[in-house]
């Protein structure tokens, strides 16, 4: 887990222990928005997890019925950096297969 994820998770836990008791647990979804945020940051990283959490908080309003809304699993193969081979370069053309000019 990178430092940004630790900072975000720390901020969420701080919210859960300080502000939430005064505001009340009024989330329309299960898991709650703050638990969703922790899981999203852990599963998808700081940037995408924060974006997913913000979208979830925006949907938590009186006009939305709410209900069960888990964090979607990470889809394999979407991380371009981890799937790229460091030794893979552009394909080479051997002299035998090079087109004539």
TrEMBL record:
Q: Please state which protein family the record places this protein in.
A: Belongs to the UPF0161 family.
UniProt keyword annotation of Cell membrane present: yes
Q: Which domain of life is it from?
A: Bacteria
Q: Which is a Gene Ontology cellular component entry for this protein? A: plasma membrane
What name does the UniProt record give this protein?
Putative membrane protein insertion efficiency factor
Annotated transmembrane regions: none
Q: Which InterPro entries match?
A: Membr_insert_effic_factor_YidD
Ranked from the top, the taxonomy reads: Bacteria, Pseudomonadati, Pseudomonadota, Alphaproteobacteria, Acetobacterales
Function noted in UniProt: Could be involved in insertion of integral membrane proteins into the membrane.
Organism of provenance: Roseococcus suduntuyensis
Topology in membrane: Peripheral membrane protein
Region feature Disordered, mapped onto this chain: 69-101
Report the subcellular localization. Answer: Cell membrane
This protein's UniProt keywords? Cell membrane, Membrane
NCBIfam families for the chain: membrane protein insertion efficiency factor YidD
Matching HAMAP family, A to Z?
A: UPF0161_YidD (MF_00386)
């Amino acid at each position: 887990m990178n430092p940004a994820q630790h900072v975000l998770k720390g901020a969420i836990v701080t919210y859960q222990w300080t502000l939430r008791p005064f505001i009340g647990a009024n989330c329309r979804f299960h898991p709650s928005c703050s638990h969703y945020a922790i899981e999203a940051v852990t599963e998808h990283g700081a940037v995408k997890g924060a974006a997913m959490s913000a979208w979830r908080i925006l949907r938590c309003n009186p006009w939305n019925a709410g209900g069960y809304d888990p964090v979607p699993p990470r889809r394999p193969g979407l991380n371009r950096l981890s799937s790229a081979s460091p030794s893979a370069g552009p394909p080479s053309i051997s002299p035998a297969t090079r087109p004539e000019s």
